[in-house]
Amino acid sequence: MKKKSAVMLAAMVSMSLIVSACSKETSDVKSSGAPTASASASSAPKEMTFKFLDYSNPSWPYDANWKVWSYIKEKTGVKLDVQLPPGNLLEDALSMTVASGDMPDLMWTQTKAIADKFGQQGALVNILDYVNDMPNLKAWMAKYPTEAQNVLSSDGKMYVFPNEGLGESNRRTWMYREDVFKKLGLQTPNTWDELYDVLKKLKAQYPDSYPLTFRNGLRYLFDFGASFNVPAEVEKRKASVYFDKASNQWKYAPIQDEYKTMLTYLNKFYKDNLIPKDFLTLDTKMWQDIVSTNRAFITLDYIGRIDFYNSALRKDNPQFTMNFMAPPAGLPGVRKNAYTSFTEEGFMVSSKSKKIKDVMKFMDFFYSEEGKKLVSWGKEGETAKGNAFIDKYTDIADMRKKTGLSTDGTYAWFDFNAHISVSSPELQSAYKEAPKYDGNKNVSLAFTLDEQQVLSTKGDALNNNRDENFSKFIMGTRSFSEWDKFIDEQKKLGYEEIVNIYKKAYDRAQAAVKK
What we know:
- This protein is of the alpha/beta class and 515 residues long.
- It is 45% helix and 8% strand.
- It starts with a helix and ends with a helix.
- It comes from Paenibacillus germinis.
- Residues 1-21 form the signal peptide.
């Protein structure tokens, strides 16, 4: 069966075939009397330790004493010897670890591209080679075929475990200080022209403020761009390529007229001191300080930040209310948020591990209903009673800090109701409203090693030029009269080749689905 699966997957078969294979293998396992992970967990599990390269989120730093680790060990017998990367730079640590050849049994990745790259280099295990030993994962794949297919690499293999349920927590949206707006008699803006007018009025009332403040430099141009119909990633490792459903074509965002329009607005905001002068270097702490001290009234970030601010700041200011704001239209009738309600994070297994089969059995537990409930709610009678937490948490961050539940490296299949249960009425309402403004869902693509090489070399040069000039256009150190010259520079650096790589990967995936 393994051989048959490998042949099909090498050709990037459709998920229906994978599910069919999984269903057959599941029946084979059951008929042979092999125990499921849930059944194994009910008996005394064999104790073992796996080395695990993980990540520590600054908002809920890693704690070896989190309850979640003991809960997982109690059910699986596995203790994770967690190693954290120097400076918390996971991607750099992964590269150095793989290059050294001395890899831990398990590693956490924040992007699928990393898994595809190292997997195709031979550093990671193809998880599909072991599905015969993972009945829970097989059943899960049958239930979530699209999510399973989305983690396949270009060679039809699976180098990162699929992750489902917690992607909704990555939803980003506009939000605003509702209490300040009410105090000043302001209405939330419907368009970017209205946004400018509102920001000017806020600036007049609070001269020391930067009414629109966002963090991490150019990253949020992805989110702003959705309302201009140019929703493209603006991160160092990602090309600004997007799929335009209207024309059914892949396009390069930075050269589009709509992108120029958006940058023109931001230049106007910058000149009038409506966004921070140091927006390029504004990190999370600086952003939080500005928002927390009445120096910012509109922002765009993860939706959970509504509770993050409200729960902390209402102690000193009971009126403080950060709330959901519908995205203003950049183009007539286009009110969209970039679609970010997904996650690429997940576990990877080292091909150098001497405990691969044990690791797979351990991972299979996470795809059982028992495993899902455990990593979502914790232990019955200790952290939860049914589908409700026993303790009162101020917000999700508080719950994570105190229990470790839903932190990086503790889950694979998650019940998002656990997050909703901790949320305030404002945040619960926001979760209901936000999907009404969802932009198009991202098209998941897998690249070959050769394509990855081009994306990481020519793509990096292209992105560096892009970022440098976006910054100049916004700050006014380069005139928009040179826009056509900028497009020529990008063309010479090879944006057309980058777009063609995306098109080939897309065509390859579409052909596989049709088989």
